[in-house]
Fold:
Amino acid sequence: MSQNWTEELGEPLSTFLEVPVEVERVELIPGGASKDTCVVDAVTPERELELLVRRAAGGTIYSDTLSLEQECKVLQAAYKAGIKTPKPYGYLEDLAGREAFVMERLEGESVGRRIVQKPEFETTREVLPKQLAEELSKIHAISLEQLPSLPGGRIGPAADYVLSTLERELDALEEPHPVIELGLSWLREHVPVSHGTVLNHGDFRVGNFLVDEEGLVGILDWEFAHLGDPVEDLAWPLVRAWRFGKDHLRLGGIGEAEPYLEHYNTLAGRQVTLEELFYWEVAGNVRWAIGSLNQAKRHLSGQERNVELAVIGRLASEVEYEILSLLERGS
Amino acid sequence: MQDRPSADELVRAVREFLEAEILPDLDDPRARFRTRVAMNALNILERELEQEETLLREELARLAALLGEDPATPDSLEKLKARVIELNRDLAQSIRQGEVPEGTLERLKQTVTDKLKVASPRYLERYE
Structure:
């Protein structure tokens, strides 16, 4: 496969960049069920290029996952809006038989546990909450006209769309989960005021942030981008599963939620309250409980046999425990 | 009845083999990680073999109390599991229809705590 890539990638890259490009190295990064990611080194007469290529590897897993073409368009809009992301070079309809897109490869660390725990990221952890608030305010300001057609509710309160989606996904599991039902029931009864419909990154959390020792380098993984309430995105990094061992720090194991919220409100010109943030934190946990069970289902259905996915199914009870603890606090 | 080793003793033998003989020779970080995950799966299984029936009986009692159902425990493990699934289905349906029996949250929390005693005891220990 690597051979095909090397041979076929030079030509479209030359077209994107309007100079002759020679591909020197292609290396597949393991992991990723529906998409392959490849490290690609290439040269032009003037410079060396460090690239990542995302290429389809089969069907998509969730109905609301973006196609590579949509993901590339969202990334282009985000990059144009000055958001810290890898620079997208372009979309390829047919790269050795499958769709793909090419982007810049940024240097840095994205592994959550290291970012949260390693001493060399102490400065990063101090500056990151404000940087995240700033990037998110910019993402939420992108005009919807610049975007491809995306999943999510365009009209009406985003919560209604989210709740019916979660309910549908839970039903698709075909197993009874009273804890998740209880979470959904609380969410139905406490729907907050809508803050409108904006572009959501969709997976904005530690693990998808590339950092170096000074701070944020880039926001990664735009494949779950959708339209939704801004607070849905704002609360997702608070979900306990993304705290990587520093559970007392509600914002992804790196900071408190309040300064992050305040900075976001100032920059975005919104008045999101702590109660609204809490509501979407509950929603995030419900989403992730269903997500965990879905991961196990990928294993159980034979779609992707993998012991990691199998065990994640059992860890859904961690998320259930968090849901019930939040409901105790919220009642 | 099978001869020894018993089920839990067999599981432990495999887990110890992975830990003592496979893990130390692995260099690839991904293979190391997956081996640890596999060991964790066996740990879960060991705890489950020990506690499964007791925890199911307790879950059944809580569900029956919430739903006003017959709390009698079936006479086989298989029937016990089927009954717990059935009652969970009734409770899930009832909550979906907007009827949440009093004490649901507390009782479900006890059940989830028991699930975690098998699936992830350390999560409970460090939860604050």
In short: Chain B has a mean pLDDT of 96.
